[in-house]
Amino acid sequence: MNPILPSFSHARALLVLGLPLVGSHLAQMLLHVSDTVIMGWYGVPELAAVALGSSFFFVTFVLGAGFAQAVMPMVAQAVGRGEETEVRRAARMGLWLSILFGAVSYPLFWWSEPLLLVLDQPSEVAELCGDFLRIAGLGMIPALLVMTLKSYLGALERTQVVLWVTVAAVFLNTPLCFALVFGYWGAPEMGVRGAGLASMLAQVLTMLLLALYAAWLPALRHFRLFQRFWRPDRHALKQVFRLGWPIGFTGLAESGLFQATALMMGWIGTVQLAAHAIAMQVTALGFMLHLGLSNATTIRTGRFAGAGDWENLKRGGKVAVALSTAIALLQIAIYLIWPEAIIGLFIDPNGVRAAEILQFGSILLAMAAAFQLVDAGQVMALGLLRGVQDTRVPMWLAAASYWGVGMPTAYIFAFPLGFGGIGLWTGLVIGLTLAAGSLMARFWLRVPR
User: Fold this and answer.
1) Alpha carbon of residue 402 to chain centroid
2) Cα–Cα–Cα angle for 138, 143, 148, rounded to 5 degrees
3) Which of 25, 60, 99, 199 is disulfide-compatible with 288, CB 3.0–4.6 A?
4) Which CA distances in Å does 92 have to 39, 226, 261, 341, 419?
């Protein structure tokens, strides 16, 4: 029987594993922010096209990344059971499914311009967005392979390399994007195509670095990840697919909720949409803390589940939830004490309608404080459930909470009841609260006693 670890040991292990993943997520966000800033300097239609194209790419990526994320608990459980062959099989078929999804999804990027025109987007923006996505879409396969390798290495507790390679990608992408967009330092001026090419090259470099690390590090070489890579493994392929597609659709449901909220906020007014975008950017940065800890929780839960160590699994789960709750409470205090100072970082105080944006953004940030606990709770619950390879029922619970309750409530509060943007965020809070409650109940009712 395994000894029950003290809570302090669980917290320390979780932070050692999770903080590099938090840093990796923050660096990934910085990469997209730098692209947005560069395109903002280049031109307004180009900025709109790249912003729209990045959202198009992200939504597609979230759906395909489910297979990559399925690798993490499968590898963690295999390590917990001491089955090295299963580690290789799960990771390899995760790579296979990532390649397949990337190839199947590329026609969406190639034909994105007519798709956007059907969705009533301005013709100039749709044309520029198509130019961007035809190149950036080539990065879907390497981006999904990167996600799979991150899951594989994270499950083997090699999270430091995930952080440093992601940081290296940011340092490559930013000057490369600047050069290719504007035509500096001898590079051709490519505009939106340059932004797409820089993004794609950064993904390829990240993929190569992680693959080399996974293949050549002496401590990992015995897993033989790429040995006879071309050989199919139907059983492992089915396992990864069965576990991964609900993860992808869960992510799609959540990201779609926030995308739809932004669309409806645009119906209310420009000031409200600008304030909403800023508040969402702030909360997204804070969310990365909980997402990294959730990933680490998936790994540790998977290890304990694989070893059949249910007492440490339960204690570790409680520590993870407590740690995430403490961070959420700190975020709530920051949002409530300094809302205007935070919003002010994102706007020109002398700009047109800056005072209105500051006022409404401060209200939204106060509401963001209201859903910090439940947003942290739902992502932590998903991390715990994925650690025990429970993904299908959580998908339905999340989708019902977000779209069956959250979205209709947001619409009703915003428009028929006339609460506007505050009503939209009220719907978000209600949907996330239901998701957190149902998902947490799902996990704790299923933990073996």
Assistant:
1) 17
2) 140
3) 25
4) 37, 7, 37, 48, 50
